[in-house]
Amino acid sequence: MNDNRNIPAHVSIIMDGNGRWARQRGQERVAGHFEGVESVRVCVEAAAEAGVKYLSIFAFSEENWERPQGEVSSLMGLMLKAIADEIDSLAKKGVRFRVLGNTSRLSPELLAAIRQAEKKTEPAPGKEPLLTLVVFFSYSGKWDILQAAKKMAKEYSNDPQGLENVKTEDFSRYLVTAGIPDPDLIIRTSGEERLSNYLLWQAAYSEFLFVDTLWPDFRRDEFMAAIEEYSHRNRRYGKVK
């Protein structure tokens, strides 16, 4: 890859196709989820190599709570296992780990593991992480906008004039992604072409790339190809260039 080309600061991935991957092999859906962890590991390494500063993944949506209880329990267990298996390696590499979403629905055990992992990978004062890995878990775009609106309404409850002067960048401070740049590139695997209630506010000017590859088969070459594709895009943000 030509280092002079435009590299996205934030790449976000909608990891889709785990269930289909498992069915094609005569396995339970959860097998696809477990195999997908390797794809995350590969993409973290590729993102750091490419110079990406933020890599985010859509791991579990608010709507996913409606899946069969057995699958939900397996996904919660997978999250715990992934944290236990990977956090030391991430910390050693200088990768910061964050989880964003409606964490009030998570078990105390999982929430404690998440907070401990976030603390362990937080860089020392004055030191920038090599990469920030953001896992959106128990997340939906509509929920994020609603909780932000509620927080803002509460803060401005005694200042209606101030509320009138709120700008879009002010509203962004109340989203769970406050302090994280909006995604430059959103990749969705498995051939589906929709957002699925993901980062509805933050994706306003993101570039999109839809690939047919199922998530457990998504590897370094395809990630790098996505970065290369992005480098040729002309982002106008609604303006004329």
Could you characterize the architecture of this molecule?
By secondary structure, this protein is of the alpha/beta class. The chain has a single domain, classed as Decaprenyl diphosphate synthase-like (Undecaprenyl pyrophosphate synthetase). It has helices at 18-24, 29-50, 69-93, 108-121, 141-155, 160-164, 168-171, 220-231, and strands at residues 10-14, 54-61, 95-100, 131-139, 185-188, 207-210. The chain has a 6-stranded parallel beta sheet with strand order 3-4-2-1-5-6, sandwiched between helices. α1 (18-24) packs across α2 (29-50). The longest helix is centred in the middle third of the chain and has 25 residues, at 69-93.
Helix count equals 8
Mean pLDDT: 95
The spatial strand order of the largest sheet comes to 3-4-2-1-5-6
CATH class reads: Alpha Beta
Q: Architecture in CATH? A: 3-Layer(aba) Sandwich
Compute the separation of the termini in Å.
25 Å
Number of domains: 1
Percent of residues in helices: 40-55%
Which regions contain 5 or more consecutive residues with pLDDT less than 50?
none
How would you classify the helix and strand content by structural class?
Answer: alpha/beta
Count of strand segments: 6
CATH superfamily: Decaprenyl diphosphate synthase-like
CATH topology: Undecaprenyl pyrophosphate synthetase
